[in-house]
TrEMBL record:
It is found in: Cell membrane; Membrane. This is Probable membrane transporter protein. The chain crosses the membrane at residues 12-35, 82-101, 113-131, 177-205, 212-231, 237-258, 270-287. Keywords: Cell membrane, Membrane, Transmembrane, Transmembrane helix. It comes from Oceanomicrobium pacificus. GO terms for cellular component: plasma membrane.
Amino acid sequence: MQIYLPIAEVSVNAFLLLGLGGIVGVLSGMFGVGGGFLMTPLLFFIGIPPAVAVATEANQIVASSFSGVLAHFKRRTVDFKMGGVLLIGGLAGAALGVQLFKALKEIGQVELLVSLCYVVFLGVIGTLMFIESLNAIRRSKRPGPPPKRTRHTWVHGLPLKMRFRASNLYISAIPPVMVGFVVGILAAIMGVGGGFIMVPAMIYLLGMPTKVVVGTSLFQIIFVTAFTTLMHATQNYTVDMALAVLLLLGGVVGAQIGTRIGIKLKAEQLRILLALMVLAVCGKLLFDLVVTPSELYTLGSGGH
């Protein structure tokens, strides 16, 4: 069933969009990521303009993340205080990112920027996560007690310390604010929740227990992506509500399924699966950037 998207100005199969939303929802529930790192490139691949894909996908992430948070809230695996500190940086980063996006859209460089950002960030994060996950799996197979991970790093020497009881931490508020700030910029420019950076940062930089990382990440993602959507809609006019609704419907259902799947898998298995997906998307985007298109010249319509 074909449906016309007024802002994107293209016709797309409605069931395809529902399916894509469902896939991203499953990822959200399993890994604590918004799923935009996968959905936004997929929207590029089916012909959605990059500016519309980025702005609209941020809207879809709100619903899939909210659905995932509800499941984690019932299990009391959300650190709301840490989520609030992350949110302070996230809102500031999103505001800056939207302004940068607007400036690049006006000079016609948004598509190149978004693609390059995806290739660089997904390539680096995916490789690091894959290596770390392999090492964790090897360690789990060795006999004897696992090595204790040091909890005291340079982060613990910074000022403005706060106590986060749900995470059993007493650390400076500066690193969480900075992590949130970076994720906010990525949400505005790349149409992602930023979970693929936030989750590793919360585990390895902040030292948070894995059991509260996913729920806390999703909690912060809800508000940052909602704010990003509002900014894009009012300043760039690139949010396609017809596209957003179809992605929302699939995402809400998928998040509940993903949460149930995530409970049954080990943390190391979850991380290596996420790393492989990140690297696969990165490879496809890099291929599209470097390979010469089949048609070097195209004729625009509408007098352009």
